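Continuing from the previous page...

OK, I double-checked the sequence for Na(+)/H(+) antiporter NhaD against my notes and this is the correct one:
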Amino acid sequence: MEADTLARTSGLWPLTLLEAVPGVSGAGELPAVTQAPLNLIHHGIGYFAVAVTVLAYCLAMLEEVTELRKSKPMVLGAALVWFAIAIYYALRGEAEAAVAAFESNLLAYGELLLFILVSMTYLNAMEERGVFDALRIWLLNRGFSYRQLFWINGLLAFLISTAVSGLAAGLLMGAVATAVGKAKPRFVALSCVNIVVATNAGGSFSPLGGISTLFVWQHGILEFVQFFSLVLPCFANFLVPALVMHFFVPKETPQVSRQTVMLRRGSRRIVALFVVTLAITVGSNVFLKLPPAAGMMAGLGLLQFFSFYLFKTAKEPNGSFPIGEPRLSDWTDDRNYDIFQKIANLEWDTLLFFYGAMMLIGALGFVGYLEAIAQFLFGDISPTAANILIGLTSAFIDNGTLMFAVLSMHPSLSQGQWLLLTLTLGVGGSLLAIGSAPGVGLLGQTRGAYTFGYHLRWFPLILVGYFVSIAVHFWVNARYF
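Thanks. Re-ran it with the corrected sequence; updated structure tokens here:
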């Protein structure tokens, strides 16, 4: 993959990748960079950037202890570092270089934000319409055994995470596991480990579900259909631990629940609109070369018009409604239906955390640290070893942040190595409970049934699955190397 010489020296790799995608380069004009950035690795600005980044990450990881939302130190840290860089460059009369670097990183974050914003808005709308409650109750009422539910939860998490965020898929299936396993804490704990592994594996071969995969797709490095070459490696990553954990799941069958949940008016149509949105996103990227955010925003427009329809067709409190339609309360509640409430209820803490993380990583790249790290990872050792090590690191650091860091290093990799990096970063987060959003979410949701220590017991087995998936990738995707 070729890169512009100026972008290589200036650290504007994310911008170069976006400009390489037809239809993106003309989206907006950024200030021209007339000189290469200064190497500040051994300067006070560089040391300050590293110190603030480390401190911000430490505070983010201690969120449960300090009760300080993880986005707050990241956003403030990003502001402090970039202001320090901008002031230093301005004093030298070279402010344009710092501005261009900041805006290039902001552009990369903006596309990610719009994509996730639409996806999470649809999920919130479906949850409010009772879609996820209906799925949970349906599973509870089928009379499945614990072992059957273990596999159903895992497979559903694997499939659902290909189209929705890993956090949403993990929390959904975690709610099912918690509901059916009230009398069996061991089942809940095992299911949560299985769900974390399955969710991360499922999102690793679909740009619609995984953050790191989405980054690679957004930057035009791989085409949408190429990611599906990772289906077998990802499934192997899920299957290896699940086969062993199966024998530790209780054999009994939980008591059947007779609870019923009625889908609210418009629920099926919202699901259909979400499917249409995903189709528009993929189709517009494959055939028109538009960035994924363009298709997702088109889908948001469709959802906004449908929410307006629900509002305008809502019945008065004492009005009549057709036989066979949902309860009257479903109609009257729609008089207060507002799609902007679904947007307001997004996980803004996570979205702002990604802003801080991407801007801090971008700052370190502009200062010169990522170039030095890239020289070691992709110069002094083999790309395969580098990608495996980076994947192991994702057990501690968010995979989206790591992928953005690698993109900022602009390594020259084959398609097989880019697929390997996507795979290892996606499934590597399963090694520890804190290594991925589903794991962190389930730690809070289950309240003690699933713990960091319990997940750690299965670390060796998950690690075996990690290396098995890599071996399968080299076997089935040898043509890409």
